[in-house]
Fold this protein.
Amino acid sequence: MAGHLNHVVIGASAAGLSAACAILKTTPRARVRVVSEEKDAPYFRPMIPFIISGKKGSSDVKMVGQGPYVQEGFELFTNTRVTRVDAGQKRVITDSGQIVSYDRLLIASGGKPYLPPEIEGVDVEGVYALRTLSQARAAAKRSSNVTHAVMLGGGLLNLKAAFSLLEKGLEVTLVVYSPEILSQLMEPEDAVMIRNALEQAGLKIMTGCSARKIVDGSKGVCSVVLDDNREIACEMVFIGKGVRPCVDFLGDSGIEIDSGVVVDRYTKSSMNDIFAAGDVAVTFDPITGERIVTGLWTNAAEMGTCAGKNMAGCPTAYSGTFGVMNATQVAGLPFVSMGVVHPGNNEHEIHKNISDTSYRKLVFSKDGNYLLGLVMIGDIKNAGLYRFIMREQRNIRFLKEKIIGQSLTSADVMYG
Amino acid sequence: MAKPGNSNKKSLDPAVNQMLEKARKENIQTVWDRYEVMLPQCGFGDTGLCCRHCLQGPCRIDPFGDGPKTGICGATADVMVARGLDRAIAAGTAAHSGHAKHLAHTLMKMSLDKTRDYQIKDEVKLKAVSTRMGIPVDGRLAKDIAKDLAQAALADFHEKETPVMWAATVVPEKRVAVLKKHGLVPKGIDHEISEIMHRTLYGVDADPVNLLLAGLRCGVADLAGCYMGTDLADILFGTPSPVTSEANLGTLKKDWVNIALHGHNPVLSDILVSVAREKQGMAISKGAKGFNLVGICCTGNEIMMRHGIPSCTHSVSQETAILTGAVDLMVVDYQCIMPSVATVAQCMGTQVLTTMDLCKITGADHMNFAEEEAVLKAEEILAMAAGNFAKRKGKPVEIPEVKTPVVAGFSVEAIVAALSKLDEKEPLKPVVDHLKAGNIRGVCLYAGCNNVKVPQDENFVIMARKMLKENVLILATGCGAGALMRHGLMDPANVNACCGDGIKAVLTAIGEANGLGGPLPPVLHMGSCVDNSRAVALTVALANYLGVDTSSLPVVASAAEAVSEKAVSIGAYAVAAGLPTHVGVMLPVMGSPLVVDVLTKTVKDLTGGYFIVDLDPESAADKLLAAIDERRKGLGL
Amino acid sequence: MDQVKEIFLRKNRCMGCHSCELACAVAHSASKNMYEAMGEVPLPKNRVYVEAVSENLPIPVLCRHCEDAPCMHACIAGAIRRMEDHSLFTDADKCIGCWTCVMVCPYGVIGRHLDAQKAYRCDRCPDLEEPACVSACPTKALVYQSVTTFSKDKRRHAAEELSRGEGK
């Protein structure tokens, strides 16, 4: 009778919708209800920098019917926040007091932006911790009438948002506490080429300092005061300090939480019939074996699909994901970073290949037989091959010359 | 799936690898990078199964049989492959004989007083060669003899009453008879080249065996071109005798005006060497310590053999000379000059000068060289180089500190002269005695180029070292000589370490009889690639002394890392002369089992010679040793 | 209804002639004509790549239109979708050039148009009777068949070889 099971999915972003589609693909007659606290219909969250720049409108980024999200038949409840999960009774309670019972539940509530408590004034008008489409629309609106923005945090989301603002003609200052931008994705010396490109594109970058206070003026934010008391005048502030799993509604559910929802290899939480996927879930890194939470669309979609299959009665092991994994192009420079990219000790064999137009760092295991991580900047050809051999933990002794010489091909990986 | 003997390294030469690391850092493409990009190479071309001889093409034959089985015209795989091979032989022949023709014209201009910059440096050889050609010499002026000889040389290019004299008079009677029997005596050098082009045209020869025989005949014409090139160069510039020198990139000198002479012909390079020696002041006036001339490829061999000018690198690594940043001018004539030298030169701010109208390169400067004003042109070139030095002076260069001592200069005349110190009346007798006694197990000639498909020098070095241990007397020419010299195999100091006891005793006996106080070098450098004729001459002399045909002797040849079509035509004449001939890279013939069978087996019944294609240097050396032993057995040794 | 056809590889047959690459580029050019395509701006891109396992073993690789396509799920712009014939399609209008698909494709067969900042891939030549690479392959190393036909052929070949005593 699996075909008639009653599924509830909390969250309508990558993990939630991927799971809903996977459930319906596996068991087309299942009931799937997806609950989202956002007012907007599901959308491609990573596209919100394009909302700020104006290159895309809200309707361009909608998810349902696009890409892999073409499965029909799930019920969507927007503007509905789940306040409690009652695992014993197998039901969830919403903010309007509605009680929704389930046979299987997916927690895909995602993450929420981290706001450092040491910064004063994060609630001033014109301060954004960019996460949702409605915030992006508001930021887009304000950005059309101001001249200077300050970005706190040197991560990818802030860089992309910064670029959108630069494109709109704003003066943009990036304030980074770390010694270099993108510190989560690479080591300082890896980022030099990207930093140069960003600066050449007009971004002002201040590293090694942080904001102490955001100052409220007559029309919202008017400046940011740094820890060294320097003050930067601005009309917008973006806080990009990462996200934390959204688990506050799970307090009394009995579900094991370790910063996020802890799941097994089959994406199941500590409670029967409750699964988790995406930014809210604690997954593992296949290389280090460590528990990790990630905030990446690609991971969420993959894990959500996996969870959906498991919920639909088709056991599917999730192979984990690298703690670090990202690809994008900023300031005309494509880059990929994944796996072990901060090899802090002598436990690794490292190869670098640097030219005027590209930078590449390869991190191998100490015995040199396993590829553990890489940073590719400028030329990202065949990045997927490296991800594949890293994830498979393949012994690459015989491919190593080619990996180092940048001549590895798909044929080598598949048939070599 | 790596090919045997083919490791991932690019070159065995540390100097080359140092420069390649520099190229990598500076993002400069070399032949190795371009090769990587080219992979995988087209299987049809690789196997000889593509044809572009007519405008209905290109045609390809599918060796798996699902696709076309013949070309559009109906040519089978056998015909296609044989035609392709013939054209390669014709091209190689055209190049060697073009080089010889250039020397013949120079000799003619000299004899007609059209140029005063050339002299007869070896009158003895002039007379010996002229006598062989039936030109009277007694009581005549050298210049008059030279005119007749130049005329005879030029006459050998076209069809005439007599066969090609530089072929018919340079091999034993018995060999002439074998060649005649199978229709392999060329009528004219240019005639054979032209006839190959005719018969390989759309709709002419479609009999693979007939095609291959024509290829062999053209190969014999190539021997004539090479032989003529050697003879005329010796007459004009002197017959080499032992000389000490050095090899590798370490011969470039930071504070000197470095001129790299690249290509093949001594017509310009020999003049440059002598003018540079007289005009050191031109360099010194620009703040240099003098002119430092170095050779690359066979131009390098020519001037090393005659003047002890060091060789800076060879063949596939020619770009590395420029990568040092220390070359002030690269002067090239023709053949084996990769067009990329001009590109690399632009990266490094080096000037490349082409000097022959048939060989211009986009990105290089051109000055047409004329024998009529050779010294004048040479002075212009030196001034150009000195000017470049003045601009380079003080800028950083990276010259690898790698060089090896070399003893070169082993013309047949020099070898016979050395042997005559052992036996004045019968100089070849000691060699024959050692052959009989087994101190010399056989003779192997290493010739040809460095191919990017082989880690540079690896095949040469592995094979030569193995055969020296087995007491084989090793001769070398061209970039094969270049490979062996850069790895110390032309340094007498290495005889002890490299050679078997027998060959060690022979080299030591000859060396000591000549007052060298030690042995000859392990490998005897016979010159440039046209000078493969010297190896043939030595073989012929031995055959004549013993009263046998060349195909009976335990003499073998190897183009272990061949590139040029010239190597293919040399291979053809080595086989026509009766020698087992190894090629260490794949010839584009694998698409035709019939052609492969003819070249490696059937031809043995005709000429005694045959091809051995083996990419693994270890097993190739074993096969050559087996061929040597088979022949020793045939001679009752 | 006809079974859906796919591009299959008979890998020992590839001669490394790159003819498939040429034909693919021409098929994705504006002019569809080789001589003109060579001069087009931007130059057309091929989506099949003849790669080498070793120097002597060339292999054409191209998008496999994976059943569980990582690229489609990873795409942050919803630019990759599955077509009726089960092939995957990258919508250049939606593609923002973030290269996430490139990062997750385990076959390395997604191309990057750097100037346009768009990803591209094999589309099985929807306007042609059979994909251009298949038509261009001189040794039929690439074939366009349904799964059933391809496996039937494979079985038949194996049986023939066994009956000739060549089976291993």
